[in-house]
Amino acid sequence: MPTANPDEGLKRVIGVSALTFSIISGVIGAGIFALPAIVGTELGAFSVIAYIFCGILLAAIMLCYAEIGSRITTSGGSYAYVEAAFGEFPGYIINWMYFFGWGIIGSAALMNIIADSLGVLFPVFSNPLVRGVFFLVLAMFMILINVYGAKQGVGVVKMITIIKLLPLLGIIIFGFSEVNAVNLRWERLPSLKSFADTTLVLFFAFAGFETSLGASGEIKNPKRTVPLSIGIAGIVVLLVYMLLQTVTQGVLGAQMALFKNAPLAAVADRIIGPAGATILLLCAALSCFGNVTLDILCTPRSLFAGANDGLFPKFLSRVHPKYATPYLAVITYGSLIFVFSISGGFQQLAVMASAIILLVYLAVILATVKLRMKKIEGGENLFKAPGRWVTPLIGIGAIVWLLTSLGKWEILSTLIFIVALCVIYLLTRWVKQKNKFLGVLK
C-alpha cells in the first residue's frame, strides 16, 4: 500500500493503533482529574447514569465523524468535511472557528494548567517570568517534535497516553477496595436543569476526539482506520470515565465537594498515601502536555489544508523537504499558543469555546447527511453509521439541546465572532478579485 499522499506531499504513516491512542489522549485530558467531583457534587450517585446518557449522545456524533472521515481522506479534519459538503465559505468559517475559537484558546489554557499543577509541588511556577520561560521551552519542544515528523509526534503522544492511563487504571483497580456501597445509593433524582448543565460539562469531557482527524492526510487506509479507531477509542474512554466516576463517588461520597479541585488525587491519597496525590498532580500536568502536543500535531493540518485551498496565506502550505511535514503551519500554530499562554487574554475568550465546538460538530453532522445522499463510486464499501437517519438526528438533537444551556453572553460573543469571520472572508475575497482584475489589466 502506498505510504504517501501524492495530492498533498504528506506521508501516510498513522495506523490504527497510533490513531486510536491519539484519540484517547485527545479526549482523556486534564478535565477528568477534576470532573468526577464536579459531576458528583451536582448529581450524587446518579452521576454514573449521566455518563451513560452523555456517552449515547457523543456516540451519535462520533459515528457521523467516522462515516464522513472514511469518505474524506485529505488533511483538515472538520474543515475538510464541511468544505467538501458545503463549499469554500462554510469551510472557511469552520476552519477559523476550530483553529482559533477552540484550538488555540484550549491549548493555551492547558499550558497554564500544566504550570498550575506543577505550582502545587514547586511554588516557583507561580512567578510570571518563570512561567513565561517554561511556556517558551514547552512550545519549542512540541514544535520541534511535530516538525520532525507526524510519526514522531504520534509516538510521543502514544507514550504519554500510556503513562497517564496507568495511574488512572491504578485508581480503578485498587480503588474498588475502598468503595463504600452506601455512597452509591440514589438519594434523589436531579432536576432537569441540573442534569442538562452537568451533561454540558460531560460533553466537553468527551470532546477532542476530532482533533486527531486533522492529520487525515497522513492516515494509512483511512476508510478502515478512521471508523475502527474512533469506535475503539470511544468505548475505552466511556469505560474509563464511568469506572473512575464509580470509584470516586464510592470512596468520597458526601465529601466530594471538599476535594472539588483534585478528587482523583484525594482517592489516590486514600489508597497509597500522600505520594498518591503527588503522582496524580504530575499525571495531570503530563496529560495536558500530551493534549497540547497532539493539538500541535493535528490542528496545523487544517491551516495547511486551508492554505492549499487558497483560504489562508500560501506559506502555510509549504511542506518540509526532508521531514514531509507542514512545518510553517506547525511553527505558526505553536507560536500562537505560546503567545496566548503568557498573555492571559484567552481567559476572556474561553466563554466562546463551548458554543464554538458545538457548532463545529453540528456542521460536520449536517455535512455527513449531505454527503450520504451523494452517490460516489465505490460508496457501497464505505463505512456508514448504523441506524440510518436516527444516528445523525440524535446528534443534531443533542447539540441543539446543549446549546440551550449556554448563557446570553456566550451566545452573543459567539455570534460576534462568526460575524467578524464573515467580514474577514468577504474582505479577503474582495482583495483577491481586485488583484486578479488588476493583473488582467496589466
Describe the structure.
The protein has a single domain (4-406), classed as Amino acid/polyamine transporter I. Strands 1-2 form a two-stranded antiparallel ribbon. Strand 1 (4-5) and strand 2 (10-11) form a beta hairpin. By secondary structure, the protein is mainly alpha-helical. The chain is built from 16 helices and 2 strands. Mean pLDDT is 79; it is low at 1-8. The chain is globular. 72% of the residues lie in helices and 1% in strands. The protein has helices spanning 16-27, 35-43, 47-71, 78-86, 88-121, 128-148, 150-175, 192-206, 222-252, 263-272, 274-298, 300-308, 327-343, 346-372, 390-403, 408-441, and strands at 4-5, 10-11.
- CATH C-level: Mainly Alpha
Order of helices and strands: EEHHHHHHHHHHHHHHHH
Separation of termini? 48 Å
Beta-strand content: under 5%
Which features would summarize this protein structure in a list?
disordered N terminus, 16 helices, Amino acid/polyamine transporter I, 442 residues, mainly alpha
